[in-house]
Amino acid sequence: MKRIESDVDLLSAGVIRNPHRTFAELRALGDVVWLARHRAWLFTTYEAVRLGFHDQRLSSNRLTPLEQRLDAETQAAMGQTFELLRGWMVFHDEPEHTRLREPLSRAFTPSRVAGLRPRIEKIVDELLEQFASIDEPDLVRDFAFPLPAIVIAELLGVPAEDRDEFKHWSDQLAAIVFGTANRAAGVERAIAGSAKFVDYFSDLVERYTDAPTDNLISALIAVTNDDPDTGLAPTELVGALTLLLFGGHETTTNLISNSMHSLLTHDRQRLWLLEHPEALVSALEELHRFDGSTKLMVRVVGEAHERSNVHLDSGQTVFLGVLGANRDPAVFDHPNELTLDRRNGRAHLGYGYGGHFCLGAALARLETEVAIGRLVERYPDITLRPGTNVSWGNVLLGRGPTALPVTRRLFR
User: How many CB atoms lie within 10 A of CB 387?
Assistant: First the structure.
């Protein structure tokens, strides 16, 4: 068996700017490619990634290997960070994954999400009214970030005045969750962010335990009180709340931003959407496929095995190449073309697959639907500001522009 290798740096400026070309080149090398710089296997094709989500020989527990690679001093310094992240179901395998996910599923119900539509519509309309008065508007700063931040904060019961701090803490924690080019700085930022989250959510849990109200924290506390044996321990509850807040705005902000960037750079498709508003929901799935908010999802080889004629050793890191899989020509015709009426756009893997399918997908879809639908309707001729060179977040696992300065020409 011959190992196919590449020395590509997924954090280089060119790849951050245009990862799609690099993932296509890696896919052409084979289903499973060793990335020497990252010391990780990359699954490049749609089928390899789909099967990777199902394969029990691949573990979601990437915290333990990360912790073991650190020196004793750093391990001690990051103790609270790891304790917080162990409350995240996404870092666990079965049966622990289901144990941590079940209380959230019982509290974060489809009916609760569906009931948020009127409030989300109101928030979007308010943001668009503010957007109209800004001299040099930025779609990320003025729209894509505040919308999911407000929604998830209200859902959890977080006071509005604390949202800016949450953005800062989330950015700090993202350094360790999503991966950055500066690992040492990332560790320091993660320690600071996790400490703030633990203190803050511990206080909120105590407050809503004493005086429950109609929010997700109270619902999770009630689920735990109903059945302490299957509920969440206090540290797990704080971890779960951090995951909901973190995932509830970080990835949705990027999804809205990426979708709008794609529309702003594909005029014919944007005009088609204006002419076919009834196709919005399916068009959003194609936008997610075309340029989603997730590049990679990480697994660790829990059991040594062979696949695609290569040997994977226990303990090795695996990158499930979601962004590349979503442009696999074996599944999607002309995958590098944005086609809003594509019939199988919903087949993308942007929300994960199988047991690890994103718990918040319904909320992300709802927020994106309302946000994009109302935005393109009210600003049908919105364009990127002339001379704009869009820059992208310098992270390994996620994808999103840092800013989208725009010009409004018409307003409805």
Answer: 6
β-pairing verdict for 305-307 and 5-6: unpaired
What SS3 class is residue 390? coil
Taking a C-beta distance cutoff of 8 angstroms, is the pair 251, 293 a contact?
yes
CB within 8 Å of 129: residues ≥ 6 apart? none
pLDDT at 182: 44
Confidence of residue 181 (pLDDT cuts 50, 70, 90): very low
The model's pTM? 0.91
Tell me the torsion sign for CA atoms 166, 170, 172, 173.
positive
pLDDT tens digits for range 346-367: 999 999 998 888 989 999 999 9
Rounded Cα distance, 371 and 144, in Å: 8
Rounded to an integer, what distance in angstroms lies between the CA atom of residue 356 and that of residue 322? 13
Which CATH superfamily groups domain 5-407?
Cytochrome P450 (1.10.630.10)
Q: In whole angstroms, give the CA distance from residue 348 to residue 139.
A: 25
